Amino acid sequence: MDYMDERSFGSRLKHAWNVFLNKDPTEDYRDLGASYTYRPDRPRFTRGNERSIITAVYNRIALDTASISIQHVRLDDNDRFLSVIESGLNNCLTKEANVDQTGRAFIQDIVMSMMDEGSVAIIPIDTSFNPQITNSYDILTMRTGKIMEWMPQHVKIRVYNERTGLKEDIKVSKRVVGIIENPHYAVMNEFNSTMQRLVRKLNLLDVMDDQNSSGKLDLIIQLPYIIKTEARREQAEIRRKNIETQLAGSKYGIAYADGTERITQLNRPVENKLMSQIEYLTSMLYSQLGITQSILDGTADDKTMLNYYNRTIEPIISSIVDEMKRKFLTKTAMSQLQSILFFRDPFKLVPVSSISEIADKFTRNEIMSSNEWRQVIGMKPSKDPKADELRNKNLSAPKEQNDDNVIEQETNSKEKEEV
Fold it and tell me: Which residues of 268-287 are buried (b: 16+ CB within 10 A; e: fewer)?
């Protein structure tokens, strides 16, 4: 017994691995590629979007879109969902899109880049075969890219190369890369659209705030003589610099002036209608996108959220799925009833007080089984075979089923008697 314990302990020591102790002595960090103090593949906003409330709107829409599940599926003869296809494409959409992103983070990256730039490219990075030669290939990893140039049959894309750690420009055929344009382009990305006007107004407001908080005194010094000659202007300039030196060198910012001099401070901001214009453009943008303040702060009711998902989220997720179908599924795959569908959990926003009533209606009308409802509320499925039946539990079982149960019970009893 002691020998076996020693043997297992020695085996554990032999095959043990510690990330700090078992390092390759010949490993050189210069061979690992470029290094950064920040994540180089992270999407970053442009044109001042990162300095305004637009970031919060983009992030909210991207998070809600990424919460919808996208899967590579197989349909039946009536184009209804039948089963999930365990393929590389489905793995990219649900588990791991690349070495840096999960499937959900990848969808969020698509939406944020699309809204910021107007359009985004989905590039298959690693494939089982060369997509330029054959259409029969499986996608292993995917990334988003920024479209730099548009050509008749190709696009020039700037995409992150995970092997070198750098962003590189490559030319790719349009038929092998997914190109998704923002369905809200006219509201978000057009030069004179509501969102771009709001961004410019917010940038102007930031400039004014910087000027007001810059620490300037804005003083006007009235000297006791007329400044018309060059000598008088030089004398006035010397006097101005003298007061600046006194204020800068004083601990409490105190300076002296002659009794004949008059100093006026301009510390009152000039009145403008910039803030009212920003409030007007913000309300207009929310109405055009189907967003309300309650959606952003999480107090929206079910009707508001339903309108938000139908008017704002559904066009975005549909454009992503439709482009993936068009570019990443061949005609042969479509003839085999393959497709890409998105699924939104309709019970995610349902309060706990309503769950029991909804569960009763769904099980009573034989829409969902008890085990399916246990999955919805986060419980393990029951091992009782009746929990998987689509049957109204409030009614007695059909006569044939009762007869079968009686026969089964009689058979079991006879077997026991024989034993």
Answer: eeeeeeeeeebeebbeebbe
d(CA 281, CA 203): 14
Q: Where are the domains of the chain?
A: 31-184+281-346, 219-265, 350-419
Handedness of CA 249, 250, 256, 261 (dihedral sign): positive
Express each pLDDT in 124-136 by its tens digit.
Answer: 999 888 887 877 8
Using alpha carbons only, how large is the chain's radius of gyration in Å?
A: 34
CA 357 – CA 353 distance, rounded (Å): 8
Are 392 and 366 in contact by the 8 Å Cβ rule? The answer is yes
Give the separation between CA 165 and CA 269, rounded to whole angstroms: 49
- d(Cα 87, Cα 91) in Å, to the nearest integer? 6
CA 268, 270, 275, 278 torsion-angle sign: negative
Contact 246, 217 (CB under 8 A): no
Tell me the pLDDT tens digit for each residue of 189-232.
888 888 888 888 888 887 777 666 555 666 777 777 788 888 88
- Reduced to 3 states, what is the DSSP secondary structure of residue 122? strand
What is the DSSP secondary structure assignment for residue 257, as one 8-state letter?
Answer: -
